Amino acid sequence: MDNLKERCRDTLRANDRGGYTVPTAGLYPFQWLWDSGFNALGWATFDEVRAWLELTTLLEAQWEDGMVPHIVFHDRNTGYPLDHTFWDAPGPVPSSGITQPPVIATVARRMLERTRDRKQALAAVRTLYPGLLAFHRWFYRARDPEGTGLVTVLHPWEGGMDNSPVWDEALARVTPVAMTVERRDTHHVGAEQRPHQAEYQRYLALVLAFRERRYDPARLYRESPFKVASVAINAVLHRANQDLLALAQVLEAPDAPEIEAWLTRGQQGMASLWHDDLFYSRDLVSGHMIPVRTWEAFMPLYSGQATPEQAARLEGTMRRWSEAVRYLLPSTAPDDVCFEPRRYWRGPVWMPVNWLLAQGCHAYGFMDLAVRLKQDMGTLAERSGLYEYYDPLTGDGLGGGTFSWTAALLLDWMT
Ligand code: GLC
Question: What positions carry a catalytic annotation?
């Protein structure tokens, strides 16, 4: 255990670039939004000053309209093919032009509640709070302009799970670009563990379409061929709203009524995504529910949006999945036609997923499942190393090695 703790700390130190942490050297040489949130939690277990710095560095890249970009390109000389020149985005620091799951208000609250130096933590929260509020406001203005209570993801990368089968049908509508950009990922990792080329060319096509529209949020929302109300991002935002509200109360900020209104709308929005016995994302171009069973279906446990009856159904489903694999939680249902145990977001076990859902199971009283999600991740890390993701059948470590969020969230659990 202590040995594992030390390896986790070493991983964060090795990936520290001074003020921000790269997910892993080589494969991902920049700062990623939700990675940074999770990494801050790891830093907070042994260096709180460094942990707060992770978040302030991230918010330095916040756009004027409130968006926090999903990649911040601090280092301009990495030779990474999709660098800031490709995005050509208007932020104050070179960045991408889309966002990622908004975990940072949740992270800030957790750090405040666990701090050993409340005075310092309160000062940091006071500095961060306006940016966090502006980020959430941006989500509602830019990604739910119709006030449905559900925010929209306009790019698979925004959902944080690039090649999830949830996106397949919506992505098929995007015309792939003819251009070939060198794939940095497949130099580092076997192609069988990464998205297919055809998907990649559609990811790029969306970026080019957004760039052409100068990332104008109103036009993107109206014109993007890819528009999905994702269960996961809405659950993450809902939970982050609860945490932002708690921060507003601590700071005696006057924004509580606005945040409470988001929570009410968010609850109604999520209720509309329940179908039979799971939550499903909705394709907002076709208007159809997306009937693919992935880890997202359980996320309303994390956000507290599942009713007790829904939670009981989710619990049953999670138990069935657990009988079909050796390690929890496969990112896609093991009996789904889309299940591929080694291909990125189509089956492997991911640390952030286990971390989020262990909290959800715990909150609803499914203690043995919460314990299993933690234990399996610990076993995977001990057995295979601190990988980006893992095969749920064999336990093999996949993707990048010495991976920051795996290390960081294990530290958060072990402390
Ligand atoms: C991949 C993951 C994404 C993550 C990024 C950096 O793109 O899908 O969730 O933020 O890598 O680790």
Answer: 162, 388
